[in-house]
């Protein structure tokens, strides 16, 4: 396993400033020819889930098993329902001008719902960032289970964000 922290010369911590990661990456690529290990290190450290998993593996290599996250299941349900509504709306392919007009009119409330769902997801991101900063403040007295649990929450957040992005693309592509 590559230690991305060591690869970029950054101290292993739960929270890293994205600008610091970018700056360090750019300094190293200017000094050395860019190579795959630098790119991989940047990818890992820019992803909170991957960074927390790596940190858990470094600090407690024997405890890398799946940890059930305390994810916000209300957000999961809200995004799942929204994505389902967008897929159902997309199936309403009208063949006449009137049918297409009805389909476009049905998209108006979905676009409002999209913004509300994005806001909900963004508030959850803020919660996750706060939890990551909390772990960082307690570092190094943080156990691997806490790191892995938060990593799983970030993983769910990324999946929800991807699903919402895909639904937005379907909705805006009409």
Briefly say what this structure is.
By secondary structure, the protein is mainly alpha-helical.
Q: List the domain count as a whole number.
A: 2
**Derived structural class:** mainly alpha
Assembly classification: single chain
Percentage of residues in strands? under 5%
DSSP summary, beta strand count: 0
Order of secondary-structure elements: HHHHHHH
State the share of residues found in helices, binned by percent: over 70%
Task: Please write out the topology.
Elements: H1 4-8, H2 18-31, H3 36-46, H4 48-59, H5 73-90, H6 97-138, H7 144-172
Helix pairs in contact: 2-3, 3-4, 4-7, 5-6, 5-7, 6-7
Descriptive account of the structure:
The protein is mainly α. The chain has two domains: 4-46; 73-172. Helices cover 75% and strands 0% of the residues. It has seven helices and no strands. The protein has helices at residues 4-8, 18-31, 36-46, 48-59, 73-90, 97-138, 144-172. The longest helix is centred in the C-terminal third of the chain and has 42 residues, at 97-138.
């Amino acid at each position: 396993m590559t230690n991305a922290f060591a690869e970029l010369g950054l101290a292993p911590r739960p929270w890293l400033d994205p600008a610091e990661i970018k700056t360090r990456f750019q300094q190293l690529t200017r000094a050395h020819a860019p190579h795959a290990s630098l790119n991989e290190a940047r990818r890992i450290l820019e992803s909170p889930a991957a960074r927390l998993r790596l940190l858990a593996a470094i600090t407690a290599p024997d405890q890398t098993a799946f940890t059930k996250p305390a994810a916000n299941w209300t957000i999961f349900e809200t995004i799942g329902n929204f994505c389902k509504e967008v897929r159902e709306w997309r199936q309403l392919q009208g063949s006449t001008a009137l049918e297409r007009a009805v389909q476009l009119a049905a998209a108006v409330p979905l676009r409002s719902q999209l913004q509300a769902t994005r806001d909900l997801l963004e508030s959850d991101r803020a919660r996750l960032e706060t939890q990551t900063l909390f772990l960082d403040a307690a570092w190094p007295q943080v156990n691997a289970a806490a790191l892995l649990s938060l990593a799983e929450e970030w993983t769910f957040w990324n999946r929800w964000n991807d699903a919402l992005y895909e639904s937005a693309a379907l909705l805006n592509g009409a």
